[in-house]
Amino acid sequence: MFQVKNLNLIYDVDKEEKVCAVNDVTLTLPDTGLIGIIGPSGSGKSSLMYCLSTLKTPTDGSIVYNGTDYRDMARGELECLRREQFGFVFQHHFLIGYMNVMDNVMVAAKETTAETRERAKELLMGLRIKETEFKKKPKQLSGGQRQRCAIARALINTPKVLFADEPTASLDHENAFRVMQYLKEYAKEHLVLVITHDHSILEGADRVIEI
Predict the structure, then answer these.
(1) 68-69 and 60-65: which strand pairing?
(2) Which of 49, 58, 185, 187 could anchor a disulfide with 192, C-beta 3.0 to 4.6 Å?
(3) How far apart are CA 64 and CA 81, in angstroms?
């Protein structure tokens, strides 16, 4: 699915003090599976994810996704790719404060239908958000509940690729384990990239890439 060759991302490239966030990365990623990208803080894990997901443009090198080089795609095509095929879980949940749990999941849906709402319900309950909590606002939830709501939102459109940056950072051990089991199941038919510094959550991953 992904073919990455000699990828570099340098911040402040025009300044004397340059920061090399991604340094000459070459790798191939499959169509399905749970792939862990692990390393200490500041090692470039998130920067690599931002490049793979088109959120940042590499300084040089190439990323080919399903046979198409990102460099050959117009901005609108990249936006469409993100919307149609990618899902995102960031370190911060980015829930909308005035919306309840169900609406925060549904806001990302391509279509607002009864079928989509049912999928949102199944996702939330699968991530252990009770139906009695669906009408709560983010401020009424725990940090772990907010993060699980954000994961449900990322999965609402059944993305081919899920980019998850520290998806269990705000979860206790039990819920972190359950979330990872959920993502492992999803990864049987999709590609799930998990960025983390915690080796323990990657037990049973199909592949672990260390940076």
Answers:
(1) antiparallel
(2) 187
(3) 13
Q: Which helix (H) or strand (E) holds 23?
A: strand 19-29
**Residue owning tokens 């849906």:** 109
Question: Residues for the chain: how many in total?
Answer: 211
* Residue 130, CA distances (Å) to 10, 127, 145, 146 in order: 44, 9, 10, 13
88-118 pLDDT per residue, tens: 999 889 999 999 999 999 999 999 999 999 9
Distance (Å, rounded) from C-alpha 192 to C-alpha 32?
Answer: 7
Treating both helix axes as pointing N-terminal to C-terminal, what angle do 173-186 and 143-155 enclose, rounded to 10 degrees?
Answer: 0
3-class state of residue 63 by DSSP: strand
